[in-house]
Amino acid sequence: MRVRVSGAALISMFILAACGGSSPGAGHTPAASTSAVTTSTATPSTGTTPSTTSSPGPASLVHCATAVPAGDNLVIGTVVGDPTVVVRDIQDPANAKNLCTFDTSAISPQFVSASAVAYVTQDTQIVEAQLAGGPTALIATFGGGVVSSGQFAISPDGRSMTYLDVNAWHLVGPSGNRVLTTLPAVPGRGVNPDEDDSFLSYSPDGQYIALFQTFHVGGSGETAPDQIRRASDGSLVYSTSGMTMAVWASVPSRLFFRDSSGNVHRWDPSTGLSSMTSLRWIRPHSSPDGRWIAYTFRTPSGLGGVGFYSVQSNSVSNTSPPGRSGVKFLTNDLVWYAGEKACTTTCIQPQPTGVTYIYSIAGISEVTSRLASVNDAWPHVTAPGL
Fold first, then answer.
1. Residue 386 lies in a domain
2. Which range among 2-16, 217-231, 262-276 shows the weakest confidence by mean pLDDT?
3. Residue at 354 is within a domain
């Protein structure tokens, strides 16, 4: 599962950090995404999970009125007209229905599997809860006062988790909780939502973990701002600096990211680093099958537009009209995003219109959406769908 912090969340997190508070960097949020591998990684194993190596947790903050059907497409988000965060079954989009609700104190919820979720509590805890009910598991706790502290990601098989705790990057798995590295402290400065980002995610095949971020800067090697590590032992396999807006995609897993000039690069575990194209994408997300990367780009008017990058052909196509941003894949074909309008008063970025949309890649068509926001969608990983 991938996790990224949204532009609006980055600004609020910096304000909270300056005031000594905390806000997790999840739902990229941390949004969440991944790309594809094989269907064998789409379902967590029945072996050891982060929760089985953790302590009993607090009372569950998710409540399901009905059983969650096995194999259905699911979304965590809100529905127009109701701020309650829900688990919604979208297997039949025309007849989507809410299955579960989250308490307001559950922050940045995401799927661990089709039957379990993880979220952050107001007590700076990362908790796993079963949708069928029962005891929760306390996976980790973290400190506040630093941007992205509490940002976390779950492995595709659900057996391990990685998270940020102030300046420390942790890995939690069957062998326990350990620190991978300690990053430089975050300096005081402003935020550019179109350039600043914090991306923390497992590769779709679960072999690697990437942390690409623009806040803990100044280090190199083991403390570099942009790193890829092996998920099995946490060892460093690649590091760099000056990069942003990363996303896993393709089969086998490859990491795509760009520099401040808009040059997109690809890291491949076999062939290393390649230059791909020139594309100043903002907060990219990949389809569950890894064949598409959807992203926001800034149009000449300053409004966002939504584009699609084909991983297979290294080509780009855009939707229309401008005034769209915040893409999230719901399925291999359906992409959710929000409408935005130009500022009429003093503000940093375009403002939301209150209207959201769903775009079909196959149908090349857009419709208004009943989903007001999207935190995560399940499954994270599928076989090729388009």
1. no
2. 2-16
3. no
